[in-house]
Design a protein that fits this description.
Length: 384
C-alpha cells in the first residue's frame, strides 16, 4: 500500500487517490481507491469507458494486491509489457477511467500478515464475497461456516457498503473481482450453474475465451462461477454487480493457484513462492487486463445498455427492495446506521418452522377427528 501511495504521488497527472472509511458496531473499515485517467477527468468521467477493479477481497490471496501494484505501475508507464504495442495501448488508455481498489479487505490482510495465513474473511470473521444481497445467506450442503460466514445481514459489512456505494456512483462498464486459488475467468452467475441469457452474456463469454487463449495458454476455466468451479456461491460481489448495479461486463478472475500444495499450506495454495512464477503471473495478468479493456470498449460500442424498458424490469426484486431500504436507512441515520438486525436467513428459518408446526398441528387435529368419526371412510378412499 505504501508503494501504491508513492506511485500515485509520482504521477499526479494520471493517478489520484481517496480513502473511504465507514463502520458499525465498533468495527470500522477503510478502503483506498486509486483512479487512473488522463485529462480533466472530473469533468468527463461520464463520457469515458469506466472500469472498476477490486483486489484483495480475501486476506490470504496476497498475490492479487501485487497485481494491482503492477497494473498501476504499467498504467503510469514506470513499467512496461514487452507484449503490448505502446501506440495501440496509448489509444485505448486515453478513453478510459479506471478505479482500482488494491486491497478491499485491509483488516483481513492485517490478520494474515500477523501470521494467520489461512484467513480469508474480514476483521470480524465475515466473508466479503458472501455478504452481498443477491441470493444472500443460502447455504449449500458443503457450507463451511468458518470460510463462508455471510454476516448477520446482506450488506452488513462496512467493506461491502463502501464497495457498493462506489459502484453505484461510478457506474462501471467493466467490473473485475480479482482472486486467487485457481486459474479461471468467471462470469455470472455464482449462485446458479448457468450464465445469463442475451447478447451481452454471449459477448462476455467470447471475451473470456479469447483472454484464456491469449494470456492463459488455455489453462483457465471459463464460464459461470457457479457452473465451473464445482460449487455454488451465494451473495457474491460479481452477481450483485451484474444483477443490481447492472454492470454489463462483470467478471471474477482467479489468477493463480497451486493445486498440489498441502491444504494446510495456505500461503502456497494461494500465492507463488518463487520470483519467476511471481513475475510470470503479474505480467500475464496485466496483459490480460489491458486486452480486456481494449476488447470491452470495442465490444460494447453501439450496444444499448440499461435501455430495457420491459415490464419485467419494473418489477422490484427482493434484493432491490432491500437495497432501497438499506439506502434509505443509511441516509436517515448516517454513520450510526445498523442494517437489519435479524438476517433474512433467520427470518426464513423461523417462517419455515412456523409453517412446519402449523402443518403438524393440522395433521394431529385431523387424525384425531378421523379416528373418532370417519377413519374407515378415509382409509378406503386412499388408492394404493
Ligand atoms: Zn478469494
Amino acid at each position: 500500500m505504501e508503494e501504491i501511495k508513492a506511485l500515485v504521488g509520482r504521477h499526479p497527472d494520471r493517478l489520484t487517490m481517496e480513502t473511504i472509511t465507514t463502520g458499525n458496531k465498533d468495527y470500522s473499515a477503510e478502503i483506498l481507491v486509486v483512479t487512473y485517467g488522463r485529462g480533466r477527468r472530473e469533468i468527463d468521467n461520464s463520457s469515458k469507458f469506466r472500469i472498476l477493479l477490486s483486489f484483495g477481497q480475501h486476506g490470504r490471496e496476497l498475490i492479487t494486491s501485487e497485481l494491482a501494484l503492477r497494473l498501476l505501475s504499467i498504467l503510469s508507464e514506470e513499467q512496461s509489457l514487452p507484449s503490448m504495442d505502446p501506440i495501440c495501448l496509448n489509444n485505448t488508455l486515453e478513453k478510459l477511467v479506471i478505479k482500482v481498489v488494491p486491497m478491499e479487505n485491509l483488516n483481513g490482510r492485517k490478520l494474515v500478515e500477523a501470521g494467520d495465513l489461512c484467513e480469508r474473511r474480514n476483521g470480524r470473521g465475515v466473508d466479503l464475497n458472501r455478504n452481498w444481497s443477491v441470493d444472500w445467506g443460502k447455504k449449500e450442503k458443503d457450507y463451511d461456516p468458518y470460510e463462508e460466514n455471510p454476516g448477520t445481514a446482506p450488506l452488513s459489512e462496512p467493506e461491502t457498503q463502501i464497495m457498493r456505494k462506489l459502484s453505484k456512483s461510478f457506474e462501471p462498464h467493466i467490473w473485475v473481482n480479482v482472486h486467487s486459488g485457481m486459474e479461471a475467468l468467471f462470469m455470472p452467475y455464482d449462485h446458479r450453474n448457468t450464465t445469463p441469457d442475451g447478447l451481452v452474456s454471449h459477448i462476455m463469454r467470447s471475451m473470456l475465451e479469447e483472454l484464456n487463449h491469449l494470456h492463459c495458454q488455455d489453462r483457465c476455466l471459463v464460464g459461470s462461477g457457479g457452473g465451473s468451479v464445482g460449487y455454488l456461491a451465494h451473495g457474491t460481489a460479481t452477481d450483485y454487480m451484474y444483477d443490481i448495479v447492472k454492470v454489463p461486463l462483470a467478471f471474477t478472475f482467479e489468477i493463480y493457484g497451486d493445486g498440489a500444495a498441502s491444504s494446510k499450506d495456505c500461503f502456497r495454495m494461494f500465492n507463488p513462492i518463487d520470483m519467476t512464477t511471481f513475475n510470470r503471473v503479474l505480467n500475464d495478468w496485466s496483459a490480460s487486463f489491458l486486452t480486456l479493456f481494449e476488447m470491452g470498449r470495442h465490444q460494447l460500442d453501439g450496444i444499448p445498455l440499461k435501455a430495457s424498458t420491459s415490464n419485467l424490469d419494473k418489477l422490484v426484486s427482493i434484493d432491490q427492495y432491500l437495497d432501497g431500504y438499506l439506502m434509505a436507512r443509511s441516509s436517515r441515520y448516517g454513520k450510526k446506521m445498523e442494517v437489519i438486525e435479524l438476517g433474512m436467513q433467520e427470518i426464513r428459518t423461523y417462517f419455515r418452522l412456523f409453517l412446519l408446526s402449523s402443518v403438524l398441528l393440522l395433521f394431529m387435529f385431523c387424525s384425531r377427528i378421523s379416528k373418532s368419526k370417519c377413519s374407515k371412510q378415509i382409509v378406503s378412499a386412499i388408492p394404493l
